[in-house]
Design brief:
The chain is an all-alpha fold. The protein contains three helices and no strands. InterPro entries: DUF883_C, DUF883_N, YqjD/ElaB.
Amino acid sequence: MANRKSSTEASTEQLKADLRHLSQTIEELVKATADDSRSNIKELRERAEQRLHDTRERLEARGEKLYGEARDSVREQVDACDKYVHENPWTSVGIGAAVGIVIGMLIGRR
């Protein structure tokens, strides 16, 4: 769990750095536009486009990774719950009945 957390923090820091670099490049592009130096504008524009592309790819990869981790975690929890219910059927029935009674009491109070 600690490994996932440090991985998430590292990814967050990388994303912040990417966004910082992208915003700096865009600021440079805006400043260069004021000079109206055609070669300078073209170079900065290409750098901005490349950084935007790189940042987009990283965001997509991070989103896919987070989705996969969440899916795996939920699958593990479902498997553990299923295993528990199969190993302890009467306990599971008792828990379900208790939850049903509590919900019924809460609904009945309204």
